[in-house]
TrEMBL record:
InterPro entries: TLDc_dom
Domain spans labelled TLDc: 22-101
Protein's name according to its UniProt entry: TLDc domain-containing protein
A Pfam family of this chain: TLD
PROSITE patterns documented for this protein: TLDC
Lineage: Eukaryota, Fungi, Fungi incertae sedis, Mucoromycota, Glomeromycotina
Length: 101
């Protein structure tokens, strides 16, 4: 099944490639993938899904804990990592990308 357009994030669908519907949805996964690949975002491709990667959840704070030690235990030595952090008390999501292998 090929997804051509960004889906409404309120739809309750289960898609294998989504790493976490609580924080990361198809829109965010598409945006981050375009940033990683330096895809120029314009009116022609703004609403199209771009999903060349299969993200794997390494750490979930609510499951694994929020300590720096746990982060390093589960994430150190992993190549090409993306970090998403939801700010407590609002809808803001921050993060980063490490392209090192």
């Amino acid at each position: 099944m090929k997804n051509d357009y960004i889906l409404n994030s309120e739809l309750n669908i289960k898609i294998e490639r989504i790493i976490d519907l609580i924080i990361v949805n198809l829109n965010i996964e598409t945006m981050v993938s375009k940033w990683i690949d330096k895809v120029v975002i314009n009116n022609n491709n703004y609403e199209k899904l771009y999903l060349p990667y299969k993200f794997k959840l390494l750490l979930r704070g609510s499951r694994d804990g929020f300590t720096p030690e746990k982060f390093h235990e589960l994430c150190d030595g992993k190549a090409n990592t993306v970090t998403f952090i939801k700010v407590k008390g609002n809808e803001e999501i921050i993060g980063g990308y490490n392209p090192l292998e």
